[in-house]
Structure formats: C-alpha cells, structure tokens
TrEMBL record, chain A:
<dbReference type="InterPro" id="IPR019108">
    <property type="entry name" value="Caa3_assmbl_CtaG-rel"/>
</dbReference>
<feature type="transmembrane region" description="Helical">
    <location>
        <begin position="12"/>
        <end position="34"/>
    </location>
</feature>
<keyword id="KW-1003">Cell membrane</keyword>
<keyword id="KW-0812">Transmembrane</keyword>
<feature type="transmembrane region" description="Helical">
    <location>
        <begin position="228"/>
        <end position="247"/>
    </location>
</feature>
<keyword id="KW-0472">Membrane</keyword>
<dbReference type="Pfam" id="PF09678">
    <property type="entry name" value="Caa3_CtaG"/>
</dbReference>
<feature type="transmembrane region" description="Helical">
    <location>
        <begin position="122"/>
        <end position="141"/>
    </location>
</feature>
<feature type="transmembrane region" description="Helical">
    <location>
        <begin position="77"/>
        <end position="101"/>
    </location>
</feature>
Automatic annotation (TrEMBL), chain B:
<feature type="transmembrane region" description="Helical">
    <location>
        <begin position="51"/>
        <end position="68"/>
    </location>
</feature>
<feature type="transmembrane region" description="Helical">
    <location>
        <begin position="115"/>
        <end position="137"/>
    </location>
</feature>
<protein>
    <submittedName>
        <fullName>DUF2243 domain-containing protein</fullName>
    </submittedName>
</protein>
<feature type="transmembrane region" description="Helical">
    <location>
        <begin position="12"/>
        <end position="31"/>
    </location>
</feature>
<dbReference type="InterPro" id="IPR018719">
    <property type="entry name" value="DUF2243_membrane"/>
</dbReference>
<keyword id="KW-0812">Transmembrane</keyword>
<dbReference type="Pfam" id="PF10002">
    <property type="entry name" value="DUF2243"/>
</dbReference>
<feature type="transmembrane region" description="Helical">
    <location>
        <begin position="80"/>
        <end position="95"/>
    </location>
</feature>
<keyword id="KW-1133">Transmembrane helix</keyword>
Length: 264, 151
C-alpha cells in the first residue's frame, strides 16, 4: 500500500515543517505585541503552544507520520498526539485570548461576535463536541473508512483535520483558558467528560477485539492498548484541570463570603 | 450538602478510585491475572467496564480535591472520610466481583485455575470492606453525638 514518491515526500516534509515553524513564530510575535499593551504574557504558555504544535507536526510530517501509513500502532500514537495531547497543550496556551489582545478593537469585536455566534455555541456544546469527537472516531475505526483513508489524499487530509479540530473543540468545551461565553456547569461537564472517556475506552477495547479492515490482529491489539492507556493519561490531565478550576472557584466564593461576613 | 455527608461522599469517591486503581495496577499489570479483553465479554459488560473505568479516574481526582477543600475549610472528619473509603471500595469490589466478572463476563479473576475459590475470596473481601466501613461510620456518628452532648 505504501508508495515511494521521494521528491513529493521531501517536499511535503519541508513544506509542513515550515508551516509549523511559522505557527510558533506567529504566536511569539503575538506575545510581543501583547506585552507592549498588557501585562507580561506568561512564558510557559509559549512553551505549551510550541509543544502542542510539535505534537501536531510529529503526527503529520516526518518519520512517525510516514510509519503510521503501514503500522496501526504508529497510527494510534499519531492519533493521540493529533487529537488529544496537541489540542490539550494548545488549549492551555490560551490562543484566543492572545489573538484578542493583538487585534484592534473593531477586529476583536468581530472575533468575539463569532465566539458568541449560534454556530460556535452549538459545536462547543459539551455533548455536541463529544459526539463530533468520539462519533468521528467510531465511524473511522468501525466502518471501512480507516482503510479507505490510506488510498485518498483528500480523505486523509479531511479526517486528520477533523480529528484535530474535534479534539480541540472537545477539550476547550471541558476546560478553557480562553473567554468562553457558553460555559456549562461543573457537574454537567463532568458527566459528559466521564461518558466521553468511557466511550474512548470502549472503542479501544472494541478495536482490540475487532481489527479495523486491513489491519492484522496483533497490530490492532497493540493499537487498542495504546489508545486505552494513552487516552487515560491525557483524559486524567483534563479531569485534574476541570476539578482544579472548579474547586479554586468555589473556594474563592467561600472566602469572599467569609470576608463579607467578617466585615459586618 | 452538610459536612458529614460531604466527608462520606469524598471518601466513597476516593475509595472507588482506589480499588479500581489497585485492580488495574495489581491484577492487570503486576500479576497479569486479569485479561485486557476476554472473548466471552458481553457488550453490556464492555459498556459497564468502560463507564466504571472512566468514572473511577474521575472519582479519584474529585475525591482528593474534596479532601483538599475540606482540609482548607477545616471541616475534615477523618473517621467519616475513612469509613466512606471502605464503603466505596467494598461496594465497587462487590459489583466488580459479582455483576462484572460473573454476569457480564468482562474477564475472570484468573485463568486456568479453580475459579470458584478466587471468586469467593474476592467477594468475601468486598463484604468485609463494606462492614468495616459501616462500623467506622456508625462509630464516628456516635462519637460525634457524644462530643455534641458533652460540649
């Protein structure tokens, strides 16, 4: 199934790498612009953004991405980087806040109008985001789509774009460091997150038992295990951050209440 | 939620997480008794396993955050909390040992052995955990009453 088109392959790798380096550079320029007008943008966010972009880059260009065409285990690792760890790191780096800081007021207004739009409200609803994210994966691995993906560049690009975007929107709908006008309660998000995690672990065991079309048994078993434990690790970070945000907020509420009671 | 209930629920959450983590670390990873996937598993078992697996991670983290919250607010009642842990751990262990292992056949405790004795000890331990938890909870409420009446 794998064809050697050396020149094309080299072109793709170099072109891709330039795009990813540009994305890191744009963020850094954004930070420089923001620092002139506002308080210092934390350095760790630049690091997180860069790591997130590197995760995505590894999953799309270079040796591991190449290997993922033939090996399901490698594919699963790139999937974890592209759909889970990369998006998580990017969410941590609060790119929308940075964007709003860099734009002129009238342009920032357009961005915030988009964020408040019905469309964004719908796709970033925790349940819709989960269905887009997990539903997409079920369709990819349970139907012959996975096999078809490797014979069409268009399908390959669309699916990878979807995996990343759905992963980002899902993560941001659970924990966000950016302004999010449509925020659901802690309990609501927790329940949806647990269901999403369950769906992820069920799918990985499903893959273990039912290899996707064109994948041999051992490769599917290893891929399923990588998906199961890799997913656990990244989901655990989301759970910790979700709880940390909630308990910090309630404690601040309690402290305010105590202070106001003392002042009487 | 009143402080007693908050303590007990935090313990139950953490107990569920603790026993699920123990199951994963000891029986799956160290001993290799449990199998990742058993061909006899019913679909409903796969779903139950997935849900409890996800919930156990969440409840470990939430239980510990509740503990930190209680300590900060100085409302932590150690006995109530520990009692909750035993109850949570025991109930989950019992559910795992009866419904998940036996009814839904998600996997057996161990393979190629006389499984009955393993099942028996598994579930007896679960019941013992629950009993210890209930005793701790009852004790903690009776001492609580004593303190309240003496003060």
């Amino acid at each position: 199934m794998h064809h050697h088109h050396e020149p094309v392959h080299w072109f793709g790798t170099i072109f891709g790498s330039i795009v990813f380096l540009l994305l890191i550079a744009i963020y850094i320029v954004g930070v420089m612009i923001s620092n002139k007008k506002y308080s210092q943008w934390p350095l760790y966010r630049i690091v997180l953004w860069s790591l997130g972009i590197i995760c995505i880059a590894i999953s799309l260009v270079g040796p591991i991405a190449e290997k993922a065409h033939n090996s399901f285990q490698s594919h699963m690792m790139t999937h974890l980087l592209l759909g889970m760890l990369g998006p998580l790191l990017l969410v941590f780096s609060a790119p929308i806040t940075l964007l709003l800081r860099c734009l002129k007021v009238q342009h920032a207004r357009i961005v915030s109008r988009i964020l408040k739009s019905k469309y964004v409200e719908i796709v970033s609803h925790p349940i819709i985001a989960t269905v887009l994210n997990m539903g997409g994966l079920w369709v990819l691995y349970v139907t012959p789509l996975y096999n078809a993906m490797h014979s069409s560049i268009l399908l390959y690009s669309l699916i990878h774009f979807h995996v990343f975007l759905a992963g980002y929107v899902f993560t941001a709908s659970m924990i966000s460091f950016d302004p999010s006008p449509h925020r659901y309660s802690f309990i609501y998000r927790s329940i949806v997150l647990v269901l999403a995690m369950a769906s992820h672990s069920i799918l990985s065991k499903w893959i273990y038992a039912n290899p996707p079309q064109g994948i041999d048994k051992f490769d599917a078993e290893m891929g399923g295990i990588i998906m199961y434990y890799g997913g656990d690790f990244i989901d655990l970070i989301i759970v910790i951050v979700l709880c940390a945000q909630y308990f910090r907020r309630t404690q601040m509420g309690i402290r305010k209440k105590e202070l106001s009671e003392k002042s009487f | 939620m009143n402080h007693n209930k908050y303590n007990i629920w935090s313990g139950i959450f953490f107990g569920i997480g603790l026993v699920a983590f123990f199951d994963e670390a000891v029986f799956h990873q160290l001993l290799h008794w449990h199998h990742f996937y058993d061909k006899a598993t019913l679909s409903v078992g796969l779903i139950s396993d997935g849900l409890f697996h996800a919930f156990s991670w969440f409840s470990t983290v939430a239980g510990l955050f509740m503990l930190a919250d209680m300590r900060k607010r100085k409302i932590w009642k150690k006995k109530k909390w520990v009692g909750g842990i035993f109850v949570g751990a025991g109930v989950f262990q019992l559910y795992d040992g009866t419904i998940q292992h036996k009814l839904m056949k998600i996997h057996q405790i161990r393979y190629n052995v006389e499984i009955f004795y393993y099942d028996l000890s598994w579930n007896v331990i679960a019941v013992i955990l629950i009993i210890i938890g209930v005793i701790l909870l009852r004790k903690s409420s009776s001492t609580g009453e004593l303190n309240a009446s003496s003060s």
